[in-house]
């Protein structure tokens, strides 16, 4: 037994107890005759006090020589503090040491181990084990643990079984790129790491497991963008004998439970919105619904008045920035610059100010009279003091651009508070999407997603119009999970593979075992997968998933702490039957 | 909503309710005017009854045409059964169908989906998703789920934090062979899959996480033996500021909790035995303590009597097979054959029968008189009717052989009941073991294990005699977990690497980040890891871990269901900068 208590638990009631604590030196203050040491562990901070005349001289000498992050073991009596510290849970007491032992010394850390640190990201990644000592980072990991625990509590409580599916599986060309693992025993053959346990969870439904979940690592060898990780964690779920609403209700319940238990928030019911409406009113399939600012389409009232830009546009659409009617020339120019940035790519921005006196002032006054603009304003339900911002052009492109402008205005107007949460189901996604590069349709979700039966006749005539039994959960404009009702019929699955451009042989080669399983009584089933890292970062009020991963990789897929990936011995390559490709000069 | 109830929950109290069930056809019985269908799901079986005159004719027609494993949806009224079945939880009731729908047909399965099946192992592995439908296999997975859940409940309840460590890490030559993952972005470089999160959990201790656990997949690219899997699951744990006894008490508590919650067994306290005693009394570092049959060493009483085989032996040692004194010539010959098998390799077996009249009959009567044999018998505490079995030779080899004979006698005498559990800690393992092949010492546990400080002076003089702060948990002769108190001091770790034959550069190259971490205040720490698959199989009363893995690989490391590993496209190899080695003709 190294200690009797941790550094976070002693209170005024413990005064006069003899205790032993262990921890790290957070800081020392030496005022000559008095030395204070703040001792830190995972649970909190406790103050040690060394006083000339009161404390043994050798202990004072030792205390004087410890530095930040030294590991200490200290025994002594709990005493009431003279000046209490209300900001610390142990702030009523301190320890008068009778024993004091340095368990391990420490070099001066490369950055300060405090809530606010002076260490840059690269340095903190290299010394991640020191960064994890800082309260905010450690608390993120504790939040993650609590999320894991409450997820399991909820799902276990409604009869879900956690089943571990294999990590060494089979490579499939569909979807993103696999990481592969060469087999030493079977030269020239490879395992692949799973991008998701999709086929295994469907096989478990064929097995009659009824309700499956797993919190599981998945892998994608993609060119990394900011805040993507090659390995990530999913809450992976599947249920049998369910309709779409059964799945939505079950997992809405999961996230409601998490909000309640982890954040103490009653998040209420989740509104549902069709993909078509999400695109029409927010220009996005993951709208941030913390604020309204819905799109209003103006084709009807803005076209045919001689303004060629609008007349030739597929879509004229705008938002109402409430209360921004007094924006200056400079502010309006900044918004125009924003939408003209290459990432957004609008040609220009039309504005209409709704003046306090009921009149309007717009950038297109030449083409539109007061009555015209009044008609516009009615479309937005605009009031005096509001500012209408209007874009036009090709439909999809214009919606995307206006969606970015809407989020930007939300930021400017402080409508995107990280402590406020707005949830949403987006449903009725398209089944297929056209891929310009390969010149064929791709499954928007994945090839096992079932089509909406009402739309089946469109599958040949107008594949892009077929709706899928697919859904996403969106919180604060972030997609946190997505899933679908699956195809459970072999013939339907074959049809789908055909529409996705698989030959029968390719389908059999890649998914033969699933197709075969469907011959033996597959139940109707569906499921969902949540991006657990993202869900944690959202609950933690952060934009970065890296803050919620204990040992993340950087944007080049590298772990700079352990220096991985790295070269391996040529013997190892020989054993695997592999050569490195010669680089041609 | 596909169903109102599952197939396991309806009882006599539910009579007259209108219900809808879904499930698989377990079997049908057609007696002309009556048809019964047993409908199965994960939760149980419910009987449907179709009766001419009572049930609509079209439903009867449909019922007549369903086969085994068809997926069915059926609505109807719950009625009391005429002849009840006490062996089934729903045996008091049956359903009179008013609606009957085939959700999916099934081909005839390749083996019978019942508790006892006619399918051989290979066939069941290929159609694992059908094997998982069988009650015994499904129950194994449910047991595994419960073990996962109760492990987490216990550890969470005593402040352990579950932290996910990375799967894509760095290859290290020490220990077993790594699986590697080629990096596409950094050609010629590789990630490795973890054999255990050992270094990460030690870094988490440096980070002050205090109590860590993780239930985690680990990987070893070994030549597979029976009942080894290339990927396996560990309960991985680590604690700071602990002595050996703190660790033993904590994890004894975990396994006690599992026995209580999962099996309803109070397993009591775990005895502790030194490695030296385990070897001396059981000839094994993982003795099966479900039965006594301890070794007795006979050098003192058996040497110097002119029997050259014993006189020239390093060790003469035997066991007492209680009550086997009447064994026939044939039985004794069979035991001799057993110990002479090449895997065991004894030269011969000496026996002494303790006759009912107090006399002795031995295979070495020529050298030993009745008084000599009486002395032997006293060493064993033998009684009339017992049989002493004695081996001799080089110490380690003889102990191994006698250990095998002891287990064999335990089997013969029915002393190894799978429903009886005997637990044990084996402690004070040697720190180092000599490896004949490489002609140097290896870490018996791993290179981070701390030596017993009392033995430090032996490190140079007699390295093999140094004891480690290492321990194994043994249940019924199976090592279910092992761990150690770690080295937390950089200088000690350097000394250890030197003794293991690492140059400073090699140690730095491979473990540099851990060595560096120890510069910044590492706390004293220690931990343990449990083989979770093995623990589940032990709780489930099975010898095979494969029975407790949803989708296991075969002994050649192959998943015969999905056919993995498999070849990949040459494009994929190009992207990875790899060539398959040409096979030389």
TrEMBL record, chains A, B:
E.C. number: 6.1.1.12
Catalytic reactions of this protein: tRNA(Asp) + L-aspartate + ATP = L-aspartyl-tRNA(Asp) + AMP + diphosphate
Location of the Aminoacyl-transfer RNA synthetases class-II family profile domain: 146-552
Region feature Aspartate, mapped onto this chain: 198-201
Protein keywords: Aminoacyl-tRNA synthetase, ATP-binding, Cytoplasm, Ligase, Nucleotide-binding, Protein biosynthesis
Transmembrane helix listed as a keyword: no
Location (main, coarse): cytoplasm
Cell compartments where the protein resides: Cytoplasm
Residues reported to bind ATP: 220-222, 229, 479, 531-534
InterPro entries: Aa-tRNA-synt_II, aa-tRNA-synth_II, aa-tRNA-synth_II/BPL/LPL, Asp-tRNA-ligase_1, Asp-tRNA-ligase_1_N, Asp/Asn-tRNA-synth_IIb, AspRS_core, GAD-like_sf
Pfam families named in the record: GAD, tRNA-synt_2, tRNA_anti-codon
Residues that hold L-aspartate according to the record: 174, 220, 445, 486
Complex formation: Homodimer.
UniProt xrefs under PANTHER family: ASPARTATE--TRNA LIGASE, MITOCHONDRIAL, ASPARTYL/LYSYL-TRNA SYNTHETASE
Similarity field: Belongs to the class-II aminoacyl-tRNA synthetase family. Type 1 subfamily.
This protein's name: Aspartate--tRNA ligase
């Amino acid at each position: 037994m190294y200690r009797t208590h941790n550094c976070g638990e002693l209170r005024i009631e413990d005064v006069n107890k003899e205790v032993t604590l262990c921890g790290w030196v957070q800081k020392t203050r030496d005022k000559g005759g008095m030395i204070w040491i703040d001792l830190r562990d995972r649970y909190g901070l406790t103050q040690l006090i060394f006083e000339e005349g009161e404390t043994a001289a050798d202990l004072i000498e030792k205390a004087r020589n410890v530095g930040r992050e030294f590991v200490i073991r200290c025994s002594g009596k709990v005493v009431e503090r003279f000046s209490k510290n209300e900001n610390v849970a142990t702030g009523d007491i301190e320890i008068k040491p009778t024993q004091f032992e340095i368990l391990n010394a420490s070099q001066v850390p490369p950055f300060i181990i405090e809530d606010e640190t002076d260490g840059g990201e690269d340095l903190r990644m290299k010394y991640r084990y020191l960064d994890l000592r800082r309260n905010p980072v450690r608390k993120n990991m504790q939040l993650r643990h609590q999320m894991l625990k409450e997820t399991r509590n909820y799902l276990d409580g409604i009869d879900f079984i956690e089943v571990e599916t294999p990590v060494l599986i089979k490579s499939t060309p569909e979807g993103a790129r696999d990481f592969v693992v060469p087999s030493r025993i079977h030269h020239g053959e490879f395992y692949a790491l799973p991008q998701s346990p999709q086929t295994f969870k469907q096989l478990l439904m064929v097995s009659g497991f009824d309700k499956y979940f797993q919190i599981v690592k998945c892998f994608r060898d993609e060119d990394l963008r900011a805040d993507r990780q090659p390995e990530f964690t999913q809450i992976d779920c599947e249920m049998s004998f369910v309709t779409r609403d059964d799945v939505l209700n079950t997992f809405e319940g999961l996230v409601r439970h998490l909000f309640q238990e982890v954040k103490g928030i009653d998040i209420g019911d989740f509104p549902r919105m069709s993909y078509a409406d999400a695109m029409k009113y927010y220009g996005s399939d993951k709208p941030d619904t913390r604020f309204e600012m819905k799109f209003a389409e103006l084709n009807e009232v803005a076209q045919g008045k001689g303004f060629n830009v609008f007349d030739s546009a597929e879509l004229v659409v705008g938002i109402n920035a409430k209360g921004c009617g007094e924006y200056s020339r400079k502010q309006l120019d900044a918004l125009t610059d924003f939408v003209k940035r290459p990432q957004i790519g609008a040609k220009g921005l039309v504005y209409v100010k709704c003046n306090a006196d009921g009149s309007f002032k717009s950038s297109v006054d030449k083409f539109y009279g007061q009555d015209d603009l009044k008609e516009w304003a009615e479309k937005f339900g605009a009031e005096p003091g509001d500012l209408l911002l209007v874009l036009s052009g090709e439909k999809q492109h214009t919606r995307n651009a206006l969606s970015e402008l809407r989020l930007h205005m939300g930021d400017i107007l402080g409508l995107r508070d990280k402590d406020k949460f707005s949830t949403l189901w987006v449903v009725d996604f398209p089944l297929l999407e056209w891929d310009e590069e390969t010149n064929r349709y791709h499954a928007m979700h994945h090839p096992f997603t079932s089509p909406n039966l009402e739309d089946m006749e469109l599958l040949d005539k107008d594949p892009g119009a077929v709706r899928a039994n697919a859904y996403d959960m969106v919180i604060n404009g972030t997609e946190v999970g997505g899933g679908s009702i699956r195809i459970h019929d072999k013939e339907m699955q074959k049809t789908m593979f055909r529409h996705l451009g698989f030959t029968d042989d390719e389908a059999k080669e890649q998914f033969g075992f699933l197709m075969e399983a469907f011959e033996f009584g597959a139940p109707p089933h569906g499921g969902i997968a949540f991006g657990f890292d993202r869900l944690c970062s959202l609950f933690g009020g952060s934009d970065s998933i890296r803050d919620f991963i204990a040992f993340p990789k950087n944007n080049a897929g590298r772990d700079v702490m352990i220096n991985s990936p790295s070269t391996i011995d040529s013997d190892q390559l020989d054993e695997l039957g592999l050569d490195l490709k010669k680089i041609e000069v």
